[in-house]
């Protein structure tokens, strides 16, 4: 009886841990900010890393687009910022074609 009780306690402990973890993750967005703060989707300007995350690209690809002057960017101090509208227009001007097999 005590062995099954220990198993039940371990099961309940694991279940509670998972529930608490899911609730905490639901409270925080993927950037670690509480969901009450503006998400990165509502920002007007992005850093290179944020732009890369938004566009599902590597930061080096974003920097390459800036060097090739395909994407406008501004330097503010040591940071490079990119206007969200400029990034969206770059993405819209280079659509990816898919092939249905």
Structure description:
There is one protein chain. By secondary structure, the chain is mainly alpha-helical. It has 2 domains: 1-37; 40-93, Multidrug-efflux Transporter Regulator, Chain: A, Domain 2 (Orthogonal Bundle). Helices cover 52% and strands 11% of the residues. The protein has helices at residues 2-27, 48-55, 59-67, 84-93; strands spanning 45-47, 74-76, 79-83. The chain is elongated. The N and C termini lie far apart (58 Å).
Largest sheet geometry: 3 strands, antiparallel
Give the count of helical stretches. 4
Strand share of the residues?
A: 5-15%
What would the principal axes of the Cα set say about the shape? elongated
Structural class: mainly alpha
Distance between the termini: 58 Å
Please indicate the count of domains.
Answer: 2
């Amino acid at each position: 009886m005590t062995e099954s009780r220990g198993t039940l306690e371990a099961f309940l402990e694991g279940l509670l841990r998972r529930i608490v973890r899911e609730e905490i993750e639901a409270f925080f967005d993927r950037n670690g900010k509480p969901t009450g703060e503006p998400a990165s989707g509502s920002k007007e300007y992005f850093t290179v890393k944020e732009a890369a995350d938004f566009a599902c690209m590597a930061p080096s690809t974003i920097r390459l687009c800036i060097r090739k002057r395909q994407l406008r960017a501004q330097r503010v101090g040591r940071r490079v910022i990119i206007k969200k509208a400029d990034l969206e227009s770059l993405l819209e001007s280079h659509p990816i074609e898919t092939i249905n097999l």
